[in-house]
Amino acid sequence: MHVRSTLMALVAGFALTACGDSPQAAEYEQAAIAAGEQWLAYLDAGSYAASWDTAATLFKAGMTRDQWVATIENLHAQLGIPQGRELIAAKHTTSLPNAPAGDYVVIQYRVDLAQGSAVETLTMRLDADVWKASGYYIRPE
């Protein structure tokens, strides 16, 4: 499926690899979760262009705004818009496959869809001292 492969390319990695459970990691995870939920609210509301506008530089380098809007519109047409979201895990790391070194938090949610459920993976990156989305992937269960 084209949408699936496109979204797979967006996520820098969805394996939850921890750098350690330091107090800073826990602080980063909480801040990234809060910022991530604000970003996901754009998707849930259908504000796809705004989600691209507020994403990390790394995310924007992966596709144009119009490409992102078309991709997420297609995805929501196929799967439906998430109706509920439950946090599974969030882990801080400083390295992900095929991504530059930096501070990342990989967050996974279980989401309810009209046609069942899925696992949603959101990668947040500390971008100019602000947590921003750098990758997004959703996989039906």
What key attributes describe this structure?
141 residues, alpha+beta, Nuclear Transport Factor 2, Chain: A, 4-stranded antiparallel sheet, globular, disordered N terminus
Describe the model.
This protein is an alpha+beta fold. It has one domain: NTF2-like, domain 1 (Nuclear Transport Factor 2, Chain: A), CATH 3.10.450.100. It is 41% helix and 30% strand. It has a four-stranded antiparallel β-sheet with strand order 1-2-3-4. Strand 3 (116-127) and strand 4 form a beta hairpin. Helix 1 (2-10) crosses helix 5. The longest helix is centred in the N-terminal third of the chain and has 22 residues, at 23-44. 33% of the residues are buried.
- Total count of domains: 1
CATH architecture: Roll
CATH H level: which superfamily?
A: NTF2-like, domain 1
Largest sheet: 4 strands, antiparallel
Gap between N and C termini: 16 Å
Shape: globular
If helices are DSSP runs of H or I spanning 4 or more residues, what is the number of helices?
5
Q: Low-confidence parts, pLDDT < 50 over ≥5 residues?
A: 1-20
| Beta-strand fraction estimate | 25-35%
Q: What's the total count of β strands?
A: 4
Mean pLDDT: 86
Q: Helical proportion?
A: 40-55%
Strand order of the largest sheet: 1-2-3-4
Short description:
By secondary structure, the protein is an alpha+beta fold.
